[in-house]
Amino acid sequence: MTRTTTHHDDPPETTCDTTAAIDISTAAGELLLRYREALTSDDVEPVAFRKGADRVSQEFIAGELARRFSGDAVLSEESPDNAVRLGASRVWIVDPLDGTREFGEIGRGDWAVHVALFENGSLTAGAVALPGLGITHSSRDPVPLYNVVPSNPRVVVSRTRRPEPVMALARALDAELIEMGSAGAKAMAVVRGDADIYAHAGGQYEWDSAAPVAVAQAAGLHVSRIDGSALHYNQENPWLPDLLICRPELAATALEVLNR
Q: Which of 10, 18, 90, 113 is the 20 to 30 Å CA partner of 65?
C-alpha cells in the first residue's frame, strides 16, 4: 500500500518518526478494510458500525504509539483530551478514521487515516493513508509538482457542505468542482495533482488537518488558514476551523478571493 522513498539528508529521528507514521496509518487502514467487509451483511446497523470502526482504529493506533513512543503525548479525535500534551515537546495528532460517512458506504475510497507528529512547535512527520485506494502519502515521499495548473483549476468540495467563501472562490476561478469526502482525501488529491485547490471554511479540528498539512508542506504546496495566517497546532482548544491547501501558483488569488 505504501509508496516510500528515503531522503538521505533527513535527520535519523525524523526518518524514524515518519516511518512510524506511515507504518501505523497504513496498518490501521488495513485493519479498517478487514472490518469493512462486514458491510456486506444485512445485519449491520450503520451508526454502530461506524462507531465500531472509529474504536477499532483508535485502539490500534493508541497501542502502537504507546509501544513505540511511550513518552510522547497524543491528541486524537477518538480519545479524551489530556492537558499534559500542552507542555509536551512531542505530540502525535491522530484521526483514526477521517470520513466516517464515506467509510460506511460500499465502494467509496475517499476516507483516510491521519497520523502526524507535532514536535517543538512544528509538524515534523505526517502520513495520510487512503486504504480504499491502496495509497499512503507521507511527508517523507512528497510528490513532485510537475503538472501544469489548468486554465480552469480543479477545486475539491464536500459532498454535503459547501461554504459560501469556497463557492465564491470556485466561481471567481471558473473552477471545475470535484466532490469528495474526507479532509485527508481532499488534501491528498491536491498533493497527487488530481486537484489544484482544497479550501475549507466549515469548521475542523487539529486532527482533521495536521497530517494532511504535514504531507502537503513537504510536497511544496501552499498551506495556511483562509486569511493567510499560519496553522497552529497543539493548542488548548484544538478547534482549527478553516484551511487552504493549494498549488503555490494559485495561493495569492485564492487568498484574495477568500478574504473579500
A: 10
**What sign does the dihedral 110-168-215-118 (CA atoms) show?**
negative
CB 244 within 8 A of CB 226: yes
Q: Is the pTM of this model over 0.85?
A: yes
DSSP letters of 21-90? HHHHHHHHHHHHHHHHGGGGSTT--HHHHHHHHHHHHHHHHHHHHHHH-TT-EEEETTS---GGGGG-SE
The residues that bridge with 136 in the sheet, in sequence order, are 2, 129
E strands, the chain, where?
Answer: 73-76, 90-98, 112-119, 122-130, 135-138, 154-158, 176-180, 197-200, 222-224, 243-246
User: Which of 138, 167, 182 corresponds to the end of one domain?
Assistant: 138
Answer yes or no: do 171 and 116 share one domain: no
Grid cell in block for residue 48: 454502530
- pLDDT tens across 203-239, in order? 999 999 999 999 999 999 999 999 999 999 999 999 9
C-alpha cell at 113: 487515516
The residue among 138, 164, 193 that closes a domain is 138
CB 126 within 8 A of CB 210: yes
Shared domain check, 166 and 107: no
Measured CA to CA, the distance from residue 47 to residue 216 in angstroms comes to: 32
Domain tally for the chain?
Answer: 2
* 155 grid coordinates: 477545486
